[in-house]
Amino acid sequence: MTLILNGCILLLKEHQLLKQADIVFDNEITAVTYDSRTVQKDGMFFCKGTNFKEEYLVQAQKNGATTYVSEIAYPNIKGMNALIVNDVQKAMALLGAAFYDYPQNKLFVIAFTGTKGKTTSAYFTRGILQNYSNKKTALFSTIDRIVGPKPEQRFKSDLTTPESLDLFRDMRTAVDNGMTHLVMEVSSQAYKRNRVYGLHYDVGFFLNISPDHIGPNEHPDFADYLHCKLQLLVNSKYCVINADTACFEEVYQAAKATTAADNIYLFAKKGKNTDNVDFVYSSQEATLADSEFSIIAQTVKAQALNVAGLYQLSLIGDFNESNATAAVIGAGLAGAPYELAKTSLANVRIPGRMETLKTQDHGTIYVDYAHNYASMQALLSFLKKNNPDKKIIVVVGSPGNKGVSRRADFAKVLSEYADFAYLTTDDPGFEDPAAICAEIDERIDHQKVAVQTILDRFQAIAVAIKQSNPDDLVILAGKGRDNYQKVAGEDQPYPDDFNVAKQIVLDLED
Ligand SMILES: CC(=O)N[C@H]1[C@@H](OP(=O)(O)OP(=O)(O)OC[C@H]2O[C@@H](n3ccc(=O)[nH]c3=O)[C@H](O)[C@@H]2O)O[C@H](CO)[C@@H](O)[C@@H]1O[C@H](C)C(=O)N[C@@H](C)C(=O)N[C@H](CCC(=O)O)C(=O)O
Ligand SMILES: Nc1ncnc2c1ncn2[C@@H]1O[C@H](COP(=O)(O)OP(=O)(O)OP(=O)(O)O)[C@@H](O)[C@H]1O
Fold first, then answer.
1. Of all residues in the chain, what percent carry a pLDDT higher than 70?
2. Which atom of ligand 2 is nearest to the CA of 320?
3. Separation CA 413–CA 443 (nearest Å)
């Protein structure tokens, strides 16, 4: 992979990003990076970030960088080409795509945004497309990035949507590994930080929106959060929208701004406002671990996708039927027909999303990543509605140094639905986990919910399971399959909630 300096200048000018170009020598660029520690010979180095220091550029030059791209010039740096731009993140995304030779053009790209359900929908979609594409579907999700068919081509993600250079590099790797399809999650932060600037998708999904990610390092307010999420639709050839979402009118208008109505698909749950939607899904039957739902195609264009029919899921929750409906439509737009979607979907399981453990004498255990009001409400209200006579026991904590409003939110949602709450530790960071639990506890309605605080998460889960009866529902919320606790700047190893529960159940049933 290479870049020609003149080509870079043209591209930046085309997007009105170039303020100044100081060219010392003309050479071919054979590597790109934003980290001085990974610079290679004849590399291009991007100076970006709130914590950026000039010494990184000095190190980059020492390590072989010949060109830097930055929003400000560094006059002390001699003997390097300088491309001074008015937005380094946008410049990086454009030059990154060019450097990796536009790998997105070789992939059918399906992208999901939404406050909740991105990972689940992405996994469902990939589950179907893997069978449709002969195992050639890449996945960029919050949990992992899969760039090829071999186990070593799957690795853990650090961000939901990676930095642009990493994104285009991984797309290139996926193409070189023979992948033909890509399913990816796009966070609002990815748009805020221009990680996906210039990227177009074959299909873009808007799943839902509720207040989240608003704070000092993320979005200043809800309007900014929504605006960032809407960008996905503006950059998609086909748009698929959950018509039950909050702010539907704004969302639909954003799609219509750049997409013909024929290429916009709407779906909604039966019983809501389904008059003008293409697909309606409806719950048929749910056990404690599986659910059955149907998708009806209401319009000619929906029928043409050939995906309507009855479906089964190996995880429950009406919200997961919504996520699965989205996946079926996405896979349908890629060409996957009903029968294939049906058989593929039935087998998809997602790490830490409604994973179920059935015990002999201690109820049904759910491990779920629900970690804010919207997701906890969706989860607990579903369980309550379908099991009005069963006791709901929740093990939950709230993280330190972020999302402080979640503490009051958890108190509210527990008061609404839970019978028993075990408050415990969840990534306390630099805060005292006991104080965090106390903040939740003081807002819980103790007339409705019995509360016990057990700071050791393993012990909290053990006590919750041991004290439950065969008919009870025990929900281990918030951490999904996280195998660490973030404590005072360190990731301390933790077996993960599912493994902890499995161990406790094994010990009990020995
Ligand atoms: C607020 C935010 O998005 N920050 C991201 C951003 O940081 P930054 O650009 O400010 O970089 P920085 O940490 O100040 O570092 C400065 C620069 O110096 C470079 N450096 C550093 C040390 C050195 O020796 N040499 C060197 O060159 C670094 O490579 C970096 O480019 O770029 C970094 C990668 O270069 C990200 O790791 C970092 O994500 C932080 C950790 C983060 O937590 N982000 C969250 C908010 C996020 O993006 N979340 C969304 C999901 C939430 C949602 O749904 O919106 C996500 O997509 O994951
Ligand atoms: N469509 C939905 N509506 C409301 N809640 C949902 C929905 N889908 C999933 N959830 C809940 O949210 C949790 C997180 O789901 P998922 O990981 O799919 O979402 P996400 O958008 O990737 O989330 P995040 O941005 O927090 O990583 C699930 O464990 C579940 O409790």
1. 100
2. 8
3. 11
Hey, what are 38's tokens?
Answer: 């990974």
Proximal ligand: closest to the CA of 113: 2
Distance 161 CA to ligand 1 centre (A): 11
425 vs 51: CA distance, rounded Å = 30
Q: Counting ligands in written order, which one lies closest to the CA of residue 383? A: 2
Domain CATH number, residue 268: 3.40.1190.10
Say what the ipTM of the complex is. Answer: 0.96
| pLDDT for position 290 | 83
Q: Could you report the per-residue pLDDT of 85-111, keeping only the tens digit for each? A: 999 999 999 999 999 999 999 999 999
Q: What is the residue with the minimal CA distance to atom 19 of ligand 2?
A: 117
- Domain termination residue (choose one: 65, 99, 133): 99
Q: Which neighbouring-strand residues pair with 145?
A: 140, 155
Tell whether residue 120 is among the known ligand binding residues: yes
Same domain for 383 and 465: yes
350 part of a folded domain: no
- Does any domain span residue 128? yes
pLDDT digits (tens, 9 = 90+) for 113-152: 999 999 999 999 999 999 999 999 999 999 999 999 999 9
State yes or no: 118 annotated in a binding site. Answer: yes
Do 361 and 279 share a structural domain? no
Place of tokens 């980059």: 60
114 in ligand 2 pocket by Cβ < 6 Å?
Answer: yes
Domain that holds residue 431: 355-509
Q: Is the pTM above the cut of 0.90?
A: yes
Residue 187 labeled ligand binder: yes
The answer to the question of residue 151 being in a domain is yes
Show the DSSP H helices in 209-275 as ranges: 222-234, 248-258
